[in-house]
Design brief:
The protein has 449 residues and is of the alpha+beta class. It contains 18 helices and 20 strands.
């Protein structure tokens, strides 16, 4: 059974067994409420009843997208490190530029990222949404949703007929992190690992999952608030007093710079090479929204191959600085609201992101004007590919079309797995009615198809 056929069959089965499917969905929701996917109270992951299922051919396409994109990342990052003139294309502060230019001790440009794309499953075409190289998350969300597929009545009915593989994203990331660390001079076989963030802003439950997985492999790990780390005698120490060998940085760069004066021990350790930082600050070069304009700049085109430039031209949405629009261009933005989305130049979790399709013309004009002078970009709105699904969390229970966002996890430059999100709104993010679904793929070669 192929992926598309399986997806359709699951939908048909749910329609024929609505009462059973409702009970199945309620069991799954209760499990999630009492799992690591509940950040407290009503703040837990929502899902839909039909999982995302791909065929091996599509997975190969995703892998090829990652290979090409990561190759471009490497060239852009190297150009930034080598060329002071090129650095001027990015709006980084002197302090951040200094952190970006620090040597890292290992050859990998971006140890972890998630390349989010709007992928059309019928045509194979896609547009980039963003490059998440800073505090990349949700690996445990993927795991838990995949684990509880055994509660999904429709999946259970068809599971015996398919060989559907899952993506392992936690231990494989630990493998990648350790491989990167062991590329450093004087690396210890079993380092002490600090998982570092501003803990009042952090996705804490996922951090403790990683901590447990490190420890299960005989590697000491500790979740640390970046503000409570100390640096002395050339070593960085955790809040409990342990000397740290390697930092798994989850603290996003914008938070680091906002609290720069409060974390000087951590900054000194990084500057003086007192710790191996996995997630070095040079990853900000491709995380920051400025990359959308830099990638089409003549200086970038000069270091990319014709094929790479064509790839960018085909898949990167048009991007402009909101403050640089002329009065006429701004009027066009107001009128053609459904064609635009407005984003901060440096944020995460889709904070402060607005899609014109979600608002009236009056509301959209007010939003656009309020973002002037606030470091925003206006970007071509890519209409997401839509697939049918059903939400048993809202009555009446009805199938409807959901917009799809496909996240391609990339560890040490290689494709590792897929993060599947859906929404019935114009923006796909937790604060905008996001739903996350488990993702599997069918290996047709194994099944003889």
């Amino acid at each position: 059974m192929r992926a598309r056929e399986l997806t359709e069959n699951i939908g048909a089965y749910i329609r024929e067994h609505m009462s059973e499917s409702e009970k199945s969905a309620m069991r799954m929701e209760e499990y999630i409420k009492h799992s690591d996917l509940n950040a407290g109270g009503n703040n837990y992951t929502r899902t839909l009843q039909i999982p995302k299922i791909y065929d091996k051919k599509t997975i190969d396409v995703f892998s090829a997208i990652v290979d090409r994109t990561y190759g471009i990342f490497e060239k852009v990052i190297q150009k930034y490190l080598d060329d002071p003139e090129y650095r001027r294309l990015f709006p980084f502060s002197k302090e951040l530029e200094e952190l970006i230019l620090l040597p890292v001790g290992y050859p990998v440009s971006v140890p972890i990222c998630r390349i989010d794309i709007f992928f059309n499953e019928e045509t194979g075409d896609f547009k980039f949404c963003e490059f998440n190289t800073d505090g990349t998350s949700a690996m445990n969300e993927n795991k838990v949703l995949d684990d509880i597929l055994y509660m999904n009545n429709a999946w259970i009915h068809f599971e015996k007929e398919v060989s559907a593989k899952r993506f392992e994203l936690i231990d494989s990331w630990i493998d990648a992190l350790l491989a990167t660390y062991h590329g450093c001079e004087n690396a210890r076989e079993k380092p002490y690992v600090a998982i570092v963030d501003f803990l009042d802003k952090a996705y804490l439950r996922e951090f403790y999952v990683f901590e447990r997985h490190f420890r299960s492999r005989g590697i000491e790990a500790e979740v640390c608030d970046i503000r409570h780390m100390t640096y002395r005698d050339g070593r960085l120490y955790s809040p409990t007093g342990h000397a740290v060998d390697v930092v798994y940085r989850r603290a996003v760069t914008s938070d680091v710079m906002n609290y720069y004066d409060e974390i000087q021990d951590f900054i000194r350790a990084v500057k003086e090479g007192g710790v191996c930082l996995i997630g070095a600050f040079k990853t900000q070069i491709v995380h920051h929204k400025a990359i959308c304009q830099v990638l089409v700049h003549p200086m970038t085109k000069a270091v990319l191959t014709p094929e790479e430039n064509q790839f960018i031209e085909a898949h990167l949405p048009k991007t402009v600085e909101l403050d640089k629009l002329t009065r006429k261009e701004m009027a066009g933005l107001w009128e053609d609201k459904d064609s635009w989305i407005i984003k901060p130049v440096d944020s995460y979790a889709a904070k402060g992101v607005y899609a014109g399709i979600d608002y009236s013309h009056k509301e959209w004009r007010r939003i656009a004007e309020s973002c002037l002078g606030q470091k925003y970009i206006a970007q071509e709105y890519c209409r997401p590919y839509k697939t049918e699904n059903i939400n048993f969390g809202i009555k009446p229970y009805e199938f409807q079309l959901y917009s799809n966002l496909t996240g391609l996890y990339t560890y040490n430059g290689k494709f590792q797995g897929v993060y599947s999100r859906m929404s019935d709104g114009g923006i796909i993010s937790t604060q905008y009615n996001e739903k996350t679904v488990a993702t599997r793929y069918i290996d047709e070669e194994v099944q003889g198809l």
